[in-house]
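INFO batch 0412 | record 1 of 1 | parsing
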Amino acid sequence: MGDLIYPQNTIAVLQKYKFNFQKKYGQNFLIEAHVMNKIIAASCVTKDSFVLEIGPGIGTMTQFLCESAKHVAAVEIDKNLIPILQDTLSSYGNVDIIHEDILKMDIEQLVMEKNEGKPIHVAANLPYYITTPIIMQLLESSVPIESITVMVQKEVADRMKAEPGTKEYGALSLAVQYYANPRIAANVPPNCFMPRPKVGSAVICLDCYKNPPVQVKNEKLMFHIIRASFNQRRKTLVNGLNNFSEIPLTKDQIQQGIEMAGLPANVRGETLSLLQFAKLSDCLYEMIPK
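INFO prediction complete | emitting tokens
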């Protein structure tokens, strides 16, 4: 299984197709078998699973996924990799190779056509410059997703999993934790990739919730409040929210809402949990003229 995981085989494929790494796509191919096995194990993929793989590269992880899952849809943006994938995956009958930009693709339609609208697993070795937009688009979409297992920059994985009051904690932590339970499955050093990235990586698995862990009257308002809280981290919460045009309340009203939520007057947003943000959001929502 997965003969591409050996560096010499990856090099042979790249030479055969005269492939050049594209900096604009942030391409780094994984060449370490034990990391690949950790990704597959963390993803909880079974023989009944439909997997959407984003950025298959030359098909290294795709081979492992094809062995483990019922069906794989591998979405690759780089047209130069499509003939390579058709070659490296030619012995698997349970894979679709799709040349498409994942951010422009109708994933819901794909899931309906290929998996009868049932929940899917997502696996990806994401380009680091576009990690957050892809993950947030998946989480915020109405696509039924069981889990998202991705290779990301170590620093981003730490931010997704961060707890209140830590320096890594921010709007991304809260957004991810509203939709999923994040767990780090492996830390991956640069020498596990070709070419080597300049930063360390981590495999993070997001187990998606069927229902968010907090109930809130206006989800959009809560995320406005979260964003405003971290836009100016050093400011107190009341000043941060008062400077944010999306919250149509006076400073006195915001202060009143903070007190109604049972929070100290000089509290900073970086110390609040998701539950506290939800409570504050509901208090402020009641004060906004409808």
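INFO post-check: The chain is about 40% helix and 20% strand.
INFO record closed
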